Amino acid sequence: MTLTLLLACAGDVVAYDSAPEADADTDADADTDTDTDADSDADSDADTDSDADTDAQTATITGTVGVSVDFAEDGQGDVYVALFDADPVWDSANANAVGMDLIEGVDFAGGDVPSYTLEGIVPQSGDYYILAFFDDNGTASIDEPVPDSGDLISFDMSTFGAPKLSVPTATEVSYTVDLNAAMP
Length: 184
Hints:
With 184 residues, the protein is mainly β. It is built from no helices and 12 strands.
């Protein structure tokens, strides 16, 4: 599945391919240990395999999605949440989606408070940017979801960009996403 977010201010499209990748071991380092002593048989070459080694070094972002504006339709639909390494509103050319979650069948009108999870996020000293949208009118394609008129989006009104999120360490981060604007 590919997530595509059309951002209201910039009008740019940013895609995130969430298809699972095969976890092939690409560790190609050769054993250069020539020591034959039984007491000193440690392999001295560095392991550059990043497949399973990074699991313990990543963060998980969890939270809920709330609504602080009126929905245009019936308040029922899917919620898309994506995390970017740069602000996709102001820097769409350099913004890469690093995590995504799709929450299907949300009923905000009935009081649902959906939860999301973004796993495998690499901690960084700078900010991440989180965007979400609610497909209130049911027109977004699951293969390439794009918010359109009336859909609710998360938006930082002070910067006119994506809300910032800090993930400085490999831990669980909790963040409530607020759908606080509607697509014109």
